[in-house]
Amino acid sequence: MNILLGSINTALLLTSSLMLTFAEHSAQAGNRRMIAIFLILTMVIGLVFLGLKFTEYYQHYQEHRAPGVWFSDPSPYASSIQMFFVFYFIMTGLHAVHMIIGIGILAGLLFRTVIGTMTAEYHSPIMFGGLYWHFVDIIWIFLYAIFYLPGLHL
Amino acid sequence: MNEPAPSLKKYIFAWLGLLGLTLLTTLIAFVNLGVWSTVIEIGIATIMASMVAGFLMHAFYETRLIQIVIATALIWFLIMMTLTLGDYMTRGWLPFPGK
What we know:
Strand content of chain A: under 5%
Number of helices of chain A: 5
Number of domains of chain B: 2
CATH class of chain A: Mainly Alpha
Largest sheet of chain B: none
Oligomer: heterodimer
Shape of chain A: elongated
Number of helices of chain B: 3
Helix content of chain B: over 70%
CATH topology of chain A: Four Helix Bundle (Hemerythrin (Met), subunit A)
Helix content of chain A: over 70%
Order of helices and strands of chain A: HHHHH
Distance between the termini of chain B: 57 Å
Largest sheet of chain A: none
Number of strands of chain B: 0
Structural class of chain A: mainly alpha
CATH superfamily of chain A: Cytochrome c oxidase, subunit III, four-helix bundle
Order of helices and strands of chain B: HHH
Structural class of chain B: mainly alpha
């Protein structure tokens, strides 16, 4: 596990959530320009997160850590290590898929903001999109605690 | 629509708190505390998740009805986790083949 990339990604996700709360706050005031700016910032930070995540996947692949025929490890615990990476790739991969869905949702919200649907009276979609994004954030907090931190002191 | 929501200041303080807890849990992870490492790391993660849910998802500012719905989901999740871990952690207690 690359603790540096993992920690940066945690901070990035938390920051993207903060940007989205700013968008929600602007939505309550009905300020469409600020909604659009903060939605774009949220999506950009989300994309940076995914970029770092896939960089990390590529490192695992190069180190023969990807489960399957390519996997190799000299230690007697090789099969346990491979099992760990099966869970790692499925859980972080599923999280990444939900991030991509979330960016799609935010793009849809951005479109509806730009064409002028969102007002101070009607902005519930932005709040609901925000709930989705923050929840994916919560999942990452636990993935970080489960996959990245235990390796540091073992 | 006038839904309850925290002020910008509270969002920023919650975010700073979350970053601080991330740093804290990462530093603690470098110390070997045996089985307590996992307990502390998951504990801090739970506090962080509560802060995200409470401030960023404004659960702390919602009506009592919505808070009860959230609590219901959490209790159901805990039941599922208890059953799963009850199976997983007791594997190997009995000498059955292929445990």
